Amino acid sequence: MDLLSKDFEILKVGFSKYATPDFAVLNESIFRTLETAAFNKNKAALAAKNLQLYFDFLNQIQRREAMAHFASIFGKPDYPNALVFIIQNAPELYKQVTTFISEIK
Q: How far apart are alpha carbons 62 and 56 in whole angstroms?
């Protein structure tokens, strides 16, 4: 999963061309990757940084649907390891997503 292991600044050029369904696929892939044992824990700092940059990027380009989809996956019990990863490694993202969720309710 490139988003979790590569330079986000390079990746965001491609993301800027994504439509909402593309972001939905990417969001699901992020959570599936974080959930698996195959996720490289040695790259946790980069993955956490990129997750924050990704959510900020979605906000910056006003892709609220993609943000809402990310938040909906975040709020489901299907990916407990992914949620633990975010809480432990990206606490600011955790706060940002929970605030986003509370604002749309």
A: 10
